[in-house]
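The instructor's notes for this session suggest beginning with a concrete chain rather than abstract definitions. Hand out the sequence below and ask the class to guess, before any prediction is shown, which regions might be ordered.
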Amino acid sequence: MSKDQSTAAIDDEPETRAASWASRLENAGPWLIGLATLVIWEAACRLLEVPRFVLPAPSAIWDSFWTWRGVIGMHAMQTLYTTVVGFAFAVVGGVLLGIGVGTSKALYKSLYPLLIGFNSVPKVAIVPILVIWFGIGTVPAVISAFLLSFFPIVVNVATGLATLEPELRDVLRSLGASRRDILLKVGLPRSLPYLFAALKVAITLALVGSVIAETIGSNAGIGYLMLMASGRFDVPLVFAGLFVVAIMGVAIYAMFAKLEARLTGWATRDVVYATGS
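After discussion, reveal the predicted structure:
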C-alpha cells in the first residue's frame, strides 16, 4: 500500500465508524422508543396514582401476564391458528382472483365494483351472521380473518399485472412469447413487490379479523380472553392481551419483511438520507 492510500484509509476511518454507529442507533431506535414509552407510562401512572381499572401501569400488566401466562399462551395459539388459516385462504384466493382481474379487462370491469362494495361493508357487522350460520367457535374467526385480508391481496396483484408496460408486452410477443409465458416469466415476478406489500398489510388485518370474531362469537382466543377479563374489570389482563396481539402482529410482519427482502431485493434499494451543506 502506498503512502497516499494509507493516508486515505486513515481519513476514512472516522466516517466508517460514524456510519457504523448511525446504523446501530437506527436499528436500536424502535427498542429505545418503546422502552422510553414504557418508562414514561410507568412514571405517569405512579405519580398521578391512576387506578388500575382505568389505566394499569406496565408493571401491573407484566404481573398479570406472568400470572396468566399459561392461559394467555393457549388463547394466543388459538388466535394465531385462526389468523394463519384465514390468511392462507386469502392468499390463495386473492392471488388467483388478482391474476384474473389483472389480466382480463372484462373481469376487471365486472368484478372490481363488486369487490369495492364488498370491502366497504364493515366486517364487524358480518361476524354475527357468521355465528348464526356456523355457530360459536373457530370457523367465524377464520372467515373473518379471510374477509379482512382478501381485498388488499387481490388489488395489489391485479395492479402489479395491469401496470406491465404495453411496450414490454409488444416486444415479448414479437419474440414469440405467448400470453402464458408473459404472465409466468414476466408478469408474476414483476408483481412480487406488490404482492409482498399486500401480504404485510393483509396479515395484520387477518389478525384483527380473528380478534374481532373472537370477541363476538367464540369460546377461545385472545379476543375471547380480553372480553372475559373486561367483564370482571381485570384491565391489566385486557392490556396484556393487547400487548400479545401487538407482539404477534409485529413478529409476523417482520417475517414477511425478511421474506420480501430475500425474494424481491432486485426491486428495492436502501434509502440514503443525506444532509445538504
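Then share the key points. The chain has two domains: 1-49, 58-266. The longest helix spans residues 3-47.
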